[in-house]
Design brief:
Helices cover 32% and strands 27% of the residues. By secondary structure, the chain is α/β, with parallel strands linked by helices. The protein has 2 domains: 3-145 and 281-295, Rossmann fold (3-Layer(aba) Sandwich); 147-271, Rossmann fold (3-Layer(aba) Sandwich), CATH 3.40.50. The model has no long low-confidence stretch (mean pLDDT 95).
Length: 296
């Protein structure tokens, strides 16, 4: 039977996946040396078993990536027949293409290193760019969709005439899918990002908002700037309440405080990045992907 190898960033999700799949969780030892280097050891014998490493690579990304690679290597050294790497939040997925001369193509670097260390396949959740999956040339890489699970949670909130809003056109299909599942309406705003400074601006748009529950959906909330801009535009239309829902809640640079100050009344995320807003689990979605890989 496959064994779950818990990464230090994903203990809650590992246990939820164990509950869904019925797999045992292996013992793993972690240590940090005085100079900051990470140490990982799989303490159980995995001889001939499939190891399923669960390690999200949220901030601090560099440390989490190294731990992921250590977990894959240690699992193989413990005798695993193969390793499925479950990386709920795939770090550097926003660095998926070159915009300026001589930039590093970091998402491709991560893909190549994961392959090189010995993973046999990879599962992630709502990868920021599908292009990232194409950088895995020797192993199968899958991205599962958490928005149906988010929609199920939203449906339990008793929303009034919900408007599901994407803060930019690129993520509009996600808004449409969520709106369909909760019997709401979907719309999107237009945003522009300065490639040099990273500053985001959002254009105002005429929308019927008064008295409605507005749900802003995005794949990632990092600094919160995109959602804050959208919330400020929405607030002018007198909504009943504003809810922000994302798959990956990173919340850097006081993002949660900024969202609250912009009028966002509730923030919802999944356990791809474990925090107090992780009200939705992706365990079932990941379990389905694991099952497909094992059967294939």
């Amino acid at each position: 039977m496959p064994l779950l190898i818990p990464g230090p960033s994903s203990p809650l999700l590992t246990q939820r996946l164990a509950d869904v799949c019925g797999y045992e969780v292996a013992k793993v030892g972690y240590r940090v040396f005085p100079d900051g280097e990470s140490y990982v050891r799989v303490e159980d014998d995995l001889k001939g078993e499939v190891a399923i490493v669960i390690q999200s690579c949220s901030p601090p990304q560099d440390k989490r990536v190294i731990e992921l690679l250590q977990l894959i290597d240690a699992s193989l050294r413990a005798g695993a027949s193969k390793v499925i790497a479950v990386v709920p939040y795939f770090a550097y997925s926003r660095q998926d293409k070159v915009f300026l001369p001589h930039e590093a193509l970091t998402s491709r670097i991560i893909a190549r290193v994961v392959e090189a260390v010995g993973a046999s396949s990879l599962i992630t959740v709502n990868v920021h760019s599908e292009l990232v999956l194409s950088y895995f040339e020797r192993i199968k890489a899958l991205s599962v969709n958490a928005f149906p699970e988010i929609a199920n949670y939203l449906a339990s909130l008793g929303l009034r005439d919900p408007l599901v809003l994407s803060p930019d056109k690129k993520r509009y299909p996600d808004a449409q899918r969520v709106a369909e599942l909760i019997a709401g309406e979907a719309a999107f705003l237009e945003k522009k990002r300065d490639l040099e400074t990273g500053e985001v601006t959002t254009e105002e748009k005429a929308l019927a908002i008064e008295g409605r529950d507005v749900v802003i959906v995005d794949d990632i909330i990092s600094t919160g700037g995109t959602i804050v801009n959208a919330a400020k535009v929405i607030s002018k239309g007198s909504p009943k309440r504003i809810i922000a829902a994302c798959v990956h809640g990173l919340y850097v640079a006081n993002a949660l405080e900024k969202l609250a100050a912009a009028g966002v009344g509730e923030i919802i995320s999944t356990d791809t990045v474990e925090s107090r807003t992780s009200k939705v689990t992706v365990a079932k979605a990941i379990a389905g992907a694991v099952e497909r890989l094992l059967e294939g």
